[in-house]
Amino acid sequence: KDIRTLFMINGYAKSERVFTRNARVASLRVTGSTGAQAMLNLRDTMDWQRFDLPGMAAQKWIQLEILSTYPGTHYDDTALSALGFQ
Length: 86
Known about the structure:
Strands 1, 2, 3, 4, 5 and 6 form a 6-stranded mixed sheet that branches. 7% of the residues lie in helices and 50% in strands. The chain starts with a strand and ends with a strand. The protein is mainly beta and 86 residues long. The chain is built from 1 helix and 6 strands. The chain is elongated and about 40 Å long. The protein has one helix at 16-21, and strands spanning 5-10, 23-32, 37-41, 48-52, 62-70, 78-85.
C-alpha cells in the first residue's frame, strides 16, 4: 500500500489537564518495509497534525518508533489519541 500522509493527535487529548499529566511524543521515526524512513517532530498540542511521507510507496508494513517525548507532570507513560494514514 502507498502511504502518503500520517495524521496524529498527540498525547492523551481528553482534556488540557489530562494532556499535560501524561507524556507526549516529541520525535518519531517512521520506517517502512522497504527501508524507507522519515523523521517527524511533533508539536506539543492536542490539535490534529499532518505529516507528508514522501518515499513510502509500496509498503507492506509501517513501524513507528518514539525517539523522544515531552514529559508529563504526573505520569511516565506516553500517549497518542489518534493515528491515521492516507
